[in-house]
Structure formats: C-alpha cells, structure tokens
Amino acid sequence: MEEQTTLKKLAEAFKELASIIDQSPEGDEEPRLELGKFARACSLLSPLFRCLGIAFKFAELDYVAKVADLTEASRSISNLSVMIHADIEADCVKRAGSHTRNLLRVKRGLDMVKVLFEHIISSQENSLRDPASKAYSQVFAPYHVWVIRKAVAAGMYALPTKAQLLNKLNEDEASAIIHMQSYITSCSPVIKYIDQLYISRELGTDW
After folding, report:
1. Which of 2-6, 25-29, 64-68 shows the lowest mean pLDDT across its residues?
2. Do residues 26 and 133 touch, judged by C-beta distance below 8 A?
3. What mean pLDDT do residues 38-52 have?
4. How far apart are CA 109 and CA 92, in angstroms?
5. Are 42 and 76 in contact (CB under 8 A)?
6. What is the chain's mean pLDDT, rounded?
7. Running DSSP on this structure, what letter comes out for residue 79?
C-alpha cells in the first residue's frame, strides 16, 4: 500500500472538496460545503507550516488557532454558508474571533501554500527563499504590520532547502510535484468558492 504522506493526504482532501463544489446540484444557490470536512482538510496544512520553520511561525500559530475554531464550530454548524449567515445575523462578521473572520484568515493560509507550491514547481533552485518570499509578499504581507513583516523577512534565511523540506515530508521530488500540482488544481476552486461566499453577501475579502 502506498504511504499516505502529508502532501498526498493534503492533495486528496482538497480534491474531495473541489469535487463537492463542482458537483453541486443544478440550480442550487451555492454549494453546501460541510464545515467539518473543510476544517479537517485545512488541518492537513499545519505540518507543512511547521516544516517551514521560524519564518512562518506566526502564520502557523495563527492558522492552527483559526482552524481549531472552525473545527469546534463544526460541532454545531453544518456548513460554511450557515456559519457566515449566523455571524451576519449576530452582527459580528468582522469582530475579532468571529468564525467568518477566522475563515477568511484560513483561506489566506490555503492561498499562501498554493502560491508557494506554484513557485517551488517553477523554480529550478534548491533554495526556498525566493518561492517563500514571493508567496508571503503576495498573500500575507498586505495584512501584516511592519514588525511581523520584518520578522518574516529575517526568518527567510532560516528556511530549509527544498531537499530538506521534501525529506521532512518524506517525499521525493517527483512525487512531491505531483501532489503539489494536485493541491494547486483542487485548491483554486475552493478559494474561489470561499471568496464568492463573502462577495455575494457584500462582505468583501480585503480586511
């Protein structure tokens, strides 16, 4: 039996989420993505953040806490649409700690990893500094204060090499590229779906 590595489990989980979104019944207002299933898939990114080391320590801690909140919320909330509706009704969408605010932060974590994988695949270098810097700058930096951006920039010099990262993840380069590309392909419609949940309710995503 093929070993279920971190990247393989991640790729398969997001492929399932993308399939749920794609197979939504015709005429349905929007796909009903189960909150528990979504949170479990998102939790599979946590080991990857840990492997990236100190540069993404803040992102890891923040991401893990937000996913934990969504996991806890899934015990009483069925899907993402219901969750956002409940926060709108309670007038707490943009309040610190709200499920809807936390979902937006988790989505940025998914996006950051997607962009990181894109740059890793396209780069011929063993260093992860350039792919990680580009992914951070594109996704996280606009929402982080100067002190955090400065700390992340300093931490980039302590990133593992690509070979070291793949070794930690128990992957060879060929298998890693397959799983990374699968995640990129599957994560894109998930991110688009989450963005649409906010945009269709006039909540925006730039906060």
Report:
1. 25-29
2. no
3. 95
4. 22
5. no
6. 93
7. B
Could you tell me which residues are beta bridge partners of residue 12? none
Report the candidate in 67, 57, 61 with the shortest Cα–Cα distance to residue 13: 67
b/e map of 184-202 (b: 16 or more CB within 10 Å)? bebbebbeebbeebbeeee
Structural tokens at position 118: 């894109």
The confidence score (pLDDT) of residue 29 equals: 62
Instruction: Indicate the DSSP class of residue 34.
Output: B
Closest to 46 in 3D by CA, of 66, 63, 69, 70: 63
Distance of CA 126 to the CA centre of its chain: 23
What pLDDT digit, counting tens, does each position of 77-111 carry?
A: 999 999 999 999 999 999 999 999 999 999 999 99
CA distances to 10, 29, 41, 72, 84 from 101, rounded to whole Å, are: 23, 22, 18, 15, 9
